[in-house]
Amino acid sequence: MKLLVEYDSVLIKGEGRKEASKYEDTGRTYNASIEFSSNSFQPKKIKAEFKNGVLRMLIPKPNKL
């Protein structure tokens, strides 16, 4: 799992793999993005944790909108 911050977006990328027979799909790729308004986004204050298959992100609320 990768969490990237680019400009005013947070990008989440990951891969899931499993053992399979020769006729089954062996993996998946996941991509998601979250866009913020540039005046409220504070990328250095984002915290993320991936535990037991769950991604938890803490993104602070802006002081002003």
Automatic annotation (TrEMBL):
Signal peptide: none annotated. CDD domains: ACD_sHsps_p23-like. It comes from the Eukaryota. PANTHER family: 23.5 KDA HEAT SHOCK PROTEIN, MITOCHONDRIAL, HEAT SHOCK 22 KDA PROTEIN, MITOCHONDRIAL-LIKE. It comes from Camellia sinensis (Tea plant). This is SHSP domain-containing protein. Residues 1-65 form the SHSP domain. SUPFAM superfamilies: HSP20-like chaperones. Belongs to the small heat shock protein (HSP20) family.
